[in-house]
Design goal:
5 helices, 16% helix, 2 domains, alpha+beta, ten-stranded mixed sheet
């Protein structure tokens, strides 16, 4: 099965093929769907409606996680009106730990979708700083998202310790020696 088969067929036939990046922000109070660089509303192959962010919205570089790194992605919106700004300033519980996804969608010349959505990024929203150039009434909101692998080094809900093991399973003695084993050298096999 080929990826983007209808898109490839349209391009090979010499028809116009458009590509747009779409972002879904899963805020606590609502899910916001935007398409980069356009005006009006787009309908994607799955029937969802996406609002145009115009020339004011921008998606930062999306990098692959290489060598154990967990790069961040910045989404920005400039020329923000006061109501959106007020929401952004009080939005820590709206944003922190929530999902953000970036997709590609191909369209033909009349903006009808070709093929399905293709996800290019899935991340966790972290913070939403607001900035303003000195002396300018224009505000810019940036939303910083981390990859889903950012917190992979944290303990899920507990540590491998005697205290946590007994809290989960009272009377279990399976982790009593963990602290003593941390820096211990054991010769094995012993001849």
């Amino acid at each position: 099965m080929a990826i983007f088969s209808a898109t490839v067929a349209a391009a090979l036939a010499g028809r116009t093929v458009r590509r747009e990046r779409l972002v879904r922000f899963d805020f606590k109070s609502e899910s916001l769907r935007l398409w980069e660089g356009g005006h009006g509303t787009l309908r994607t192959a799955d029937g969802q409606m996406w609002a145009g962010a115009g020339q004011l919205g921008q998606i930062g570089d999306i990098e692959s996680s290489i060598g154990g790194t967990a790069p961040t992605v910045e989404f920005s919106l400039s020329g923000v009106d006061p109501t959106v700004l007020a929401k952004a300033l009080s939005a820590s519980d709206e944003v922190k730990g929530r999902l953000v996804e970036v997709y590609l969608q191909h369209f033909n010349e009349d903006w009808s979708p070709l093929d399905g959505l293709y996800q290019t990024f899935s991340g966790i929203m972290d913070r939403m700083p607001v900035s303003a150039p000195p002396g300018s009434p224009t505000r810019t909101i940036k939303l910083v998202a981390e990859t889903i692998w950012t917190q992979r080094g944290f303990a899920p809900f507990s540590y491998i310790s005697d205290r946590d093991q007994k809290r989960l399973h009272p009377g279990d003695r399976g982790c009593e020696q963990v602290a003593a084993m941390a820096s211990k050298t054991i010769q094995w096999p012993v001849f």
